[in-house]
Amino acid sequence: MNSLPLEGKSAVVTGGASGIGGAVTKLLVERGARVVVVDLQQEAGEALAGELGDAVVFLRGDVSDRAVADLAVSTAVERFGKLDVLVNNASVSRQKPFEDQTDADWDLAMDTGLYATRNFMLAALPELKKAGGASVINFGSGAGLDGQPNQASYAAAKEAIRGLSRVVANEWAPHDIRVNVVCPMALTAGVAAWAEARPEQYAQSAAKVPLGRFGDPDRDVAPIVAFLASDDARYMTGQTVMADGGAIKLR
Ligand SMILES: NC(=O)c1ccc[n+]([C@@H]2O[C@H](COP(=O)([O-])OP(=O)(O)OC[C@H]3O[C@@H](n4cnc5c(N)ncnc54)[C@H](O)[C@@H]3O)[C@@H](O)[C@H]2O)c1
Question: Whose CA is nearest to atom 5 of ligand 1?
């Protein structure tokens, strides 16, 4: 029996250099996995790889680029021999009222959210099929579930990711590939900037959290992702898991 829950597993984490993705990368490694981190931030990615040693390969790239998805998967196979876990965490968007959002704003949310998730899943499929029990973890958002103002393109991309994930969970179950979605709420640097730009919205969101605070990326969100990545979650697929202190309760 393995002493660590993710021992021997190989993962790709998009946006894995900082924020929630950085916390996920660190915890997956702590629990025994090896990780290809795909991120735009060269300095943060190299610093993390330096900190975590041979267990991490940093790949600088834009998740919107299909070739980057293929390269991430081939890097995992070359360096770690296989791929068992895919975490589609990266995504970017601009917050404005719906009528002010431009085509470029929509492209950004869709390309880095929905299409990146699609492309990484497609690129990973041949390897995930061979894993003998694989896990895909996609990222949704309470902003989509709640219809948060100023988040039209982002909410649309995130809800599309949830729909896509449910379909793929059904289609890939025969290959023993699980697909789940995490909707986090965590005080990362990005959220801190949003809180500063829109303090009323931030205060409203924090006030709605029964556990009384925005989550900590390392202690509150990454463990839920690590659980879904592990064989402890082997009977769980097609689910949306709220890592949000109880803010939204799905039924
Ligand atoms: N933080 C929250 O409270 C919250 C709430 C709801 C949903 N989410 C979702 O959780 C995920 C992580 O959120 P976060 O707050 O840690 O985000 P973040 O902005 O702090 O970090 C995102 C990471 O992705 C990288 N990245 C951004 N664009 C990229 C691109 N095109 N290609 C490659 N890498 C790219 C960034 O460099 C960064 O390392 C996102 O999908 C986000 O939508 C977060």
Answer: 185
Distance between CA atoms of residues 94 and 107, nearest Å: 10
What is the number of domains present in the chain?
1
Q: Where are the beta strands (DSSP E) in 144-199?
A: 177-184
Residues of the chain with pLDDT under 50: none
Residue 251 included in any domain: no
1 within a domain of the structure (yes/no): no
Which residues are within 8 A (CB) of 80 and not within 5 positions of it... i.e. 6 or more apart?
Answer: 10, 34, 36
- The predicted-structure confidence for 73-128, as pLDDT tens digits, reads as follows 999 999 999 999 999 999 999 999 999 999 999 999 999 999 999 999 999 999 99
Which residue, 100, 145, 91, is CA-closest to 120? 91
Q: Which atom of ligand 1 is nearest to the CA of 143?
A: 6
Q: Is the CB of 15 under 6 A from ligand 1?
A: yes
